[in-house]
Amino acid sequence: MNxxxxxxxxxxxxxxxxxxxxxxxxxxxxYKVKPIGPRTGETKxxxxxxxxxxxxxxxxxxxxxxxxxxxxxVAYLSRMYSTPERSLIPESTHDYAAWLEWCFFVVAxxxxxxxxxxxxxxxxxxxxxxxxxxxxxxxAAEYFRGQLRHVEVALADGRPFxxxxxFSSADILLTTCLDWAxxxxxxxxxxxxxxxxxxxxxxxxxxxxxxxxxxxxxAVGPAKL
Length: 225
Ligand SMILES: N[C@@H](CCC(=O)N[C@@H](CS)C(=O)NCC(=O)O)C(=O)O
What we know:
By secondary structure, the protein is α+β, with helices and mostly antiparallel strands. The chain is 51% helix and 7% strand. It has 10 helices and 4 strands. The termini are far apart. The protein binds glutathione.
């Protein structure tokens, strides 16, 4: 492995970008940040579009290698930069499969099918683009709560983290969705409350929150004198 990786993370200020910042901090990695924000025009520049034709954040550059999709970035960092002292990914085949199941579940069911649907259709979010749809928002919140039963049942045995005794990147993904749900006023399940408090006390989480703070708004016209 390269002793001093050349890492640049594009993106700040969203529930997806914090995942990558957080994995970096858990793994003790140094990295450069290009804190571009969504819907600022910064994802649509020629330079960024060359790197990511999807025009989305986050995006990670590791030397010449480039990877998008927040969960894929987190999985890549976990695989590439975990050490015996700081590991975000389980090793045994079955634990790895269970970790994958959690990651896909969080991204597909909690993020894409529930919270992002709410974001697209809330009047105070992206409803002006995708259509304001209160019934869709309410149903997506209900669906989220239903899917969270999987978390409630898993945490009922008192395990500190999704994978048991060891924190993993599946916890990064889940926590960002729990934070997002709370911000949207969607109640989270009972067992997730002490879980979330425990995770929010992690130094790496707190550093990631600071690192993910959105940059000052970009000027969109000539500077006013
Ligand atoms: N599935 C993607 C979603 C990425 C995504 O939608 N990012 C939003 C911000 S959270 C974005 O970049 N929007 C850019 C824009 O519309 O300008 C991931 O998890 O990385």
